Amino acid sequence: MRRVRTDPREELPNILFKNTVTPAIGILTYALCGFALMYPGETNWILGQAFGFAGFGLHDPAAADPMAYNGKFTYWTDFLFQGMFAATAATIVSGAVAERIKLNSYMVFTAVYVAIVYPILGSWGWGGGWLLDRFNFHDFAGSTFVHSVGGWAALSGILLLGPRIGKYVNGKPMAIMGHSMPLATIGVFLLWFGWFGFNGASALSADPQVVSLVLVNTTLAAAAGILAAMVSGMALLKRIDFSMALNGCLAGLVAITAGCDAVTPLSAIVIGLIAGVLVVLAVLGFDRLMIDDPVGALSVHLVNGVLGTLAVGIFSSQYSVLSQLVGILSVGGAAFDTSFAIFYVLKKTLGIRITETVELRGLDVWEHGSEAYAGFQIFTNV
Predict the structure, then answer these.
(1) Using CA atoms, how far apart are residues 188 and 53, in angstroms rounded to an integer?
(2) What residue spans define the domains of the chain?
(3) DSSP assignment of 115-181, as one string?
(4) pTM of the entire predicted model
(5) What topology does CATH give the domain 3-381?
(6) Residue 49, phi-psi category: left (phi > 0), alpha (psi -120 to 50), beta (remainder)
(7) For the CA atoms of 176, 179, 183, 185, what is the dihedral angle to 10 degrees?
(8) Chain segment 110-124, per-residue pLDDT in tens
(9) Helices 103-112 + 321-348 axis angle, to 10
(10) Residues forming beta bridges with residue 353, ordered by sequence position
(11) Cβ atoms of 33 and 58 closer than 8 Å
(12) Which alpha helices (H) appear in 30-102, and where do they start and end?
């Protein structure tokens, strides 16, 4: 008789803690050095504009022009805005490695990745680096620099961790149900609402023409993603899979993020439809490859981050497919290699995978000394 954890509530506080500590780590490390790596200033570029550093800490507005964006966006606002982007990239990893990663190793990874890797890669485009300068690469609000950067890191972590116990039996994926669909639904709607801030504020001004187009395209792509994922799920799974529809919403949002300022509303709908279909295919495909992603982070953020970046070149006459492809491949290769190296070092030192006993018992009690809902029985014999 083997004791098996059957109640997903026993991962809830662990997930909630990671989503609380990740922005704390991300914002502080971004303040310490990440912001200065991402926006180093023209005089600080070295190694052919691939890397630069403006110094530790945030600068006094008297030294750094407090209204550096034509009087429309302040230095301090830019830090706050970009710091949340940096933390978001790390939260993508959090969901993908859920239920089997050591908390201390995850926090070390987050600190290193957000402090160094994320801002250097972001500087290639958003900091005036070589992708923008030489290739006119366009990623308006982060399909590549946030979502796929987080997605490639998530993939490296998943590969080194391996699947959860009981996820694959004789090569067949077994469903491990989530904690609460109502909470998942609330989370998706909060993300949809928050996306207006991420995409809309990426205009770096309150220009009504640009911001309104961005918000409309964001909304249309999300709506199209929901319907496309719903229909795709019905066709492939022979049922209306609610979780697929929720991920379809997020897939549409990720896919429109790179070009929401540069495509027409009709193109935004098409991009959302493609994203909704693609996310369903990706979820099923990763399962066939036995790549265990509990929340579909790879399918939503990595796959559709790539789609959205490529779509800029396809649906906008201002940018080329080749230039977008160069950005996808260069950022993707660097993100995957560096994150794999960080996780590998952690695996050989601190270790990254919890023990079988801890995994079956649940991380909440072992890592935090608490349960999701005190007094509930969480074990059964099989």
Answers:
(1) 36
(2) 3-381
(3) IIIHHHHHHTTTTS-HHHHHH----SS-IIIIIIHHHHHHHHHHHHH-PPTTSEETTEE-----S-H
(4) 0.89
(5) Ammonium transporter fold (1.10.3430)
(6) left
(7) 10
(8) 999 999 999 999 999
(9) 140
(10) 101
(11) no
(12) 35-38, 75-96
